[in-house]
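[job 4471] stage=fold_predict status=RUNNING
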Amino acid sequence: YLEQDALEIHAKSIGLRAFSSENISIGTLTIGTEVETFESVTSGYYTSFRQFMYCKIGKLIYLPANATTGSKCNSGIFQSATIGELEFSDEIEVVPNYLFFNAIMELDDFTLNVPVIGYYSFSGSDIKFHKLTIGEEVTTFSINDSNYSRAFDYNTIDMLYYNAAEAQIETLASLVAGPFSYATINGLNIGD
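[job 4471] inference complete, writing structure tokens
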């Protein structure tokens, strides 16, 4: 059992299941700029990360500019973790694939202004945004081998402000699952 007010991680890599436990509660978790990769294990077709699976995190401060996760996943980094608040650094260039895949969070007002948004990065039915802004700096929604982006798959979004006029899905294929596949969007505003 661990209950801690704050934890900062300044390692190059975070190991598989490093903090995976429903008995871990962290007030503020900072993932430092030094983090480049999240380790995983592959069994057959399935790849698992689960670094913070089941954790309770009051506030997550995410700082890595170009951290990577790989191309396949069935269990995300914050799989079934409860996250109260989320803060991204202005220096982030990529939201890694599967970063918040199947996490549990409800965010009041969140702006995502990162050039590249990885596939399945916020995918999950337990993710709710009261107000989500996709900023002008977003240029690419990554896709996997099946032409799926699904960055916000199954999310509930009360109000979506979409300002990414230059954003594209990185494929020319005619059959593509876009970033908001299966999301419930209750209001939409495009542009300023």
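[job 4471] summary: The first strand starts at residue 2 and ends at 9.
[job 4471] exit 0
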